[in-house]
Design a protein that fits this description.
about 160 residues, about 55% helix
């Protein structure tokens, strides 16, 4: 059986050059182009992870965390061929888990506060909401750049 999948096309008007700092921002086209194409049921099923695949991801994360706990937090005791902590750093200790939860909650609350403030004043300023969100995510952005730089240097060894 065939299904329909909505496919977003790039906005043709947005082909002008963009400053580097603007290129990293999320923007929404005022006139998105949408096309539909037929897909088979098989193609549709291959588009998403299956529940078994998610379960395998979770088990792998649990196994990796167990290796970390068994090494008592000393990553030099881990075999880098068998164990990769990348992506799990924020979930390995209680402190990092709590810190991450606080950061996420604070970020969401700041955005909601700004939106409520604008609504109360009868205004709508998505740019201000964007600025609040970007300010809250600056530390994460810097950390991601540092980690990426480290991984790049490590890959060149």
């Amino acid at each position: 059986s065939l299904g329909l999948v909505k496919v977003r096309k790039a906005n043709r008007a947005a082909k002008h050059s963009v400053k580097r700092s603007e290129a990293k921002a999320v923007r929404f086209s005022k006139t998105p182009e949408v096309a539909f194409r037929h897909v088979t049921q098989d193609e549709l099923q291959k588009t998403w992870y299956k529940p078994q695949e998610y379960d395998a991801f979770k088990e792998d994360c649990k196994r990796t965390a167990a290796y970390y706990r068994n090494a008592q937090g000393d990553i030099t005791r881990l075999d880098p061929v068998k164990v990769c902590l990348r992506g799990l750093e924020q979930n390995l200790t209680r402190i990092s888990i709590m810190s991450r939860r606080i950061t996420i909650t604070s970020s969401v609350n700041m955005v909601l506060h700004e939106q409520l403030s604008q609504k109360t004043r009868g205004q709508s300023n998505p740019e201000k909401v964007r600025e609040v969100c970007m300010a809250m995510s600056e530390a994460s952005r810097r950390r991601a750049i540092t980690v990426a730089s480290f991984d790049e240097k490590l890959a060149k060894l």
